[in-house]
């Protein structure tokens, strides 16, 4: 017999949010890792807020929301908060009961400076790494490093001369047409009006320069987990300078190795590595020049293994751009974009950790 197309709601429901989430859903182990990390961040959260006044939205819920946004590639915080109205999975992950209304998207704008000032997302990354470290999942000797361009929330026509009049424009005031064709523009003479921290840069002679920042990642080679990250202005030396800074922060005095691509085959970088007791196992750059890496390094089997392992670092950037929030950021300024980059690195680890933890022997 055909059923009637009638929706009749009950006055009461006895289902919990947890009942809406399958027991084998991949977000379950991720949420457990995140909650374990958040529990040890109480002191940081207490320092973020005044002792008096109205209760804030719980910072733990705000952070879980940002993690969701990066995991599912939600294009904006407005869409995230809208989705919390009807998506039971998102509500469960964030920890928002059925009776509560989601916060307004402007809450993130009001709290972003607070998150940056107290380096909350960077501490979250460290607390997640602590769990991997406790299970012996991190290498303490072998690492890889690389950088990538992060497209800025700025357009080519926003770049105007630092001194002198802007280029001629026409069309609507809100979206004018700027005639900059044929003009010589460099970062020394021009700057973006919408994002002054962005720089025009390209990593390939075959591609045009784009307004961008530059992100850098240090990865351990055992399981491909991100152990450190940086965001800088884009320049020809930024990758090597950021890499040396991250390598200098590694704990322990034992000798370490670092794999990298041809962009790091430079005398200053190799010397900086050796000063930090790090053996540089960098790909040889022989394009119109002689490599700074010779047979004393390349003859070892460890060099070949390092060159194989360092290619995994490309998947970190691929995950963050294809599935996450880094294809083109929607915040401006190095501090704000740096928060997004650290969050993206944390989420890459969160995607990988459940499988690695499941492979560990119980007990």
Give an overview of the whole structure:
With 363 residues, the chain is α+β, with helices and mostly antiparallel strands. The protein folds into three domains: 17-118, no CATH class; 139-152 and 212-331, Ribonuclease H-like superfamily/Ribonuclease H (Nucleotidyltransferase, domain 5); 160-193, no CATH class. The protein has helices at 27-39, 42-48, 59-72, 77-83, 88-94, 106-117, 120-134, 238-248, 267-275, 295-298, 301-309, 313-322, 334-358, and strands at residues 142-151, 159-161, 169-170, 177-178, 190-192, 199-201, 210-220, 226-233, 256-260, 278-282. Strands 1, 6, 7, 8, 9 and 10 form a six-stranded mixed sheet that branches. It has a two-stranded antiparallel ribbon with strand order 2-5. β7 (210-220) and β8 form a beta hairpin. The model has no long low-confidence stretch (mean pLDDT 89). One of its GO terms (molecular function) is DNA binding. It comes from Pelomicrobium methylotrophicum. Keywords: DNA recombination, DNA-binding, Transposition. Involved in the transposition of the insertion sequence IS5.
């Amino acid at each position: 017999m055909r059923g009637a197309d009638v929706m009749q709601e009950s006055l009461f429901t006895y289902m919990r949010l947890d009942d809406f989430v399958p027991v084998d859903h991949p977000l379950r182990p991720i949420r457990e890792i995140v909650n374990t990390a958040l529990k040890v961040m109480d002191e940081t959260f207490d320092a973020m807020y005044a002792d008096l006044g109205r209760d804030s939205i719980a910072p733990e819920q705000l952070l879980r929301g940002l993690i969701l946004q990066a995991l599912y590639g939600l294009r904006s915080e407005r869409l995230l908060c809208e989705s919390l109205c009807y998506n039971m999975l998102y509500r469960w992950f964030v920890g928002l009961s059925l009776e509560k209304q989601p916060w307004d998207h402007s809450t993130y704008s009001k709290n972003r400076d607070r998150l940056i000032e107290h380096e909350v997302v960077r501490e979250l990354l460290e607390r997640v790494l602590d769990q991997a470290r406790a299970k012996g999942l991190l290498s303490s000797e072998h690492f890889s490093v690389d950088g990538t361009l992060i497209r800025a929330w700025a357009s080519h026509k926003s770049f105007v001369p630092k001194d002198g009049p802007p280029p001629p424009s026409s069309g609507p005031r809100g979206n004018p047409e700027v005639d900059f064709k044929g003009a010589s523009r460099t970062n020394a003479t021009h700057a973006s009006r919408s994002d002054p921290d962005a720089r025009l840069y390209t990593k390939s002679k075959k591609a045009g320069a784009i307004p961008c920042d530059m992100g850098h990642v240090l990865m351990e080679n055992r399981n491909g987990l991100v152990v450190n990250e940086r965001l800088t202005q884009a320049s020809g030396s930024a990758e090597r300078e950021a890499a040396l800074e991250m390598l200098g922060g590694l704990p322990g005095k034992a000798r370490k190795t670092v794999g990298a691509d041809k962009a790091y085959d430079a005398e200053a970088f190799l010397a900086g590595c050796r000063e930090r007791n790090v053996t540089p196992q960098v790909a040889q750059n022989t394009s119109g020049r002689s490599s700074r890496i010779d047979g004393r390094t390349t003859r070892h089997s460890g060099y070949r293994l390092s060159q194989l392992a360092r290619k995994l670092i490309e998947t970190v950037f691929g995950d963050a751009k294809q599935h996450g929030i880094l294809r083109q950021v929607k915040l401006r300024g190095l501090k704000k974009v740096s928060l997004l980059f650290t969050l993206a690195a944390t989420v890459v680890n969160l995607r990988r950790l459940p499988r690695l933890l499941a492979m560990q022997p119980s007990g």
